[in-house]
Amino acid sequence: DLSQFLSGPFCTMNLADFGAEVIKIERPGAGEGSRAFGPFKNGQSGYYTLVNRGKKSVTLDLKKGQEILYKMVMDCDVLVENFKPGTMERMGLGYDVISKVNPRVIYMAISGFGYTGPYRERGALDMIIQGMSGLMSLTGDPDGPAMRCGTSASDVFTGLYAFGAMSAALYDREKTGKGQFVDVAMLDSTFSCLENAVINTCVFHKNPQRVGNSHPTSVPFGTFPTADDGEIIITCSRDAAFYNLCRALGREDMITDPRYSKAEDRRQHKAELTEEISKFTRARTLDECAAILEAHDVPNGRINTMTMICDDPQIAARDMIVEVEHPVAGKYKMAGSPLKFGNYPETTYEPAPMLGQHTQEVLKEYLDMPQEEIDELLEEHKNMLKK
Fold it and tell me: Is 363 strand, coil or helix?
């Protein structure tokens, strides 16, 4: 794993969760960039410890240590990197070289724009991709500015696509015996997740309008105020769900009301319908609204704060908050894996490594490097840290 920050490390984190041995290559002295990102616990980056859990850290100067990396590649299944296209090639580590060292290797190249096209040499960060992909243009209130998502969505989309592509490439290798180069771009990954917006734009050749928490075609669809200053989400994409909502509101008359009986009618009379529903929710607490809607099988949910969702019984039941113990940071909690396998009911989580923690182990046990050469390399790394 030669990747850094989020898209690549998030991909390889998923592999580590399920037992893959992930060897993370880091710069001597400083390590990869996210080690400098907060929040910190006992001097250890919370950001780094999340997406690098369960990995082994080996420090290596890629500009000088190509021969060592070649030896590591000879016995590995996958190489992951997320540099700008051309960077690995300039260091003598491009796919053309690596595939000669190990023809069975899966070479996963993650980048902002991919290895083809006019933007291929540009660097990119998550917000840049959110903006360029069109995602930000769809996010926010109709009369407000475009907004980024509340999380690094483009990085995460890309990491998940890379994880899936890697699995497919490994399966293909089982059939063909051949490795391959896999090119995953953040712009492509984010654009492909815009679903209905892309289809509508291609069909009607005009920009979709931002709709905030509502939906361009489904009504009702959004948040509604409650008596205790909460907000409840109600979404009725099908007529049957809307009719259930009418029964929950005690307004069966709206089922046959020509303004609301069909989806297009509801869309044309969105403001009136929103007010009718709000009258009901404003007169009841969030818990009362949820209980009534749930009893009538109306799709609903509350807007949780992060403290609320972290304490949610469903999250606990699904083991979605896990605790690990780091040798320096101590015990800390983080999000667990959402993937549950019948044959592997429990996932074991290991802490993220200290910088260079496994350098000697990997070089000695995997590469059979003489101890004096290891000592010489480690001394060189110390000198780099001093500089």
Answer: helix
196 pLDDT band (50/70/90 cuts)? confident
Report H helices in the chain.
7-17, 46-51, 66-73, 87-90, 95-101, 126-133, 153-176, 186-192, 195-204, 239-249, 253-256, 263-268, 270-282, 286-295, 306-310, 313-317, 359-365, 371-386
Query: What average pLDDT does range 76-101 have in this prediction?
Result: 96
Q: Is 96 a catalytic residue?
A: no
Question: Position of tokens 């070479």?
Answer: 107
| pLDDT classification of 131: cutoffs 50, 70, 90 | very high
Predicted structure pTM score: 0.92
Q: Which residue has the tokens 């998940």?
A: 160
Residue 342 makes CB contacts below 8 A (sequence gap 6+) with none
Let me know how long the chain is. Answer: 387
- Exposed (0-12), middle (13-18) or buried (19+): which is 310, by Cβ within 10 Å? middle
CA–CA dist 54, 325 (Å, integer) = 11
Lowest mean pLDDT segment, chosen from 175-184, 199-208, 287-296: 199-208
Determine the Cα angle at 140 with ends 135 and 146, to 5°: 60
Assign 178 to helix, strand or coil. Answer: coil
* Residue that is written with structure tokens 């051309």 in the block: 86
- What is the 8-class DSSP label of residue 326? E
List the catalytic residue out of 1, 17, 126, 155: 155
Residue 160 has pLDDT above 70, yes or no: yes
Q: What is the mean pLDDT of residues 13-26?
A: 95
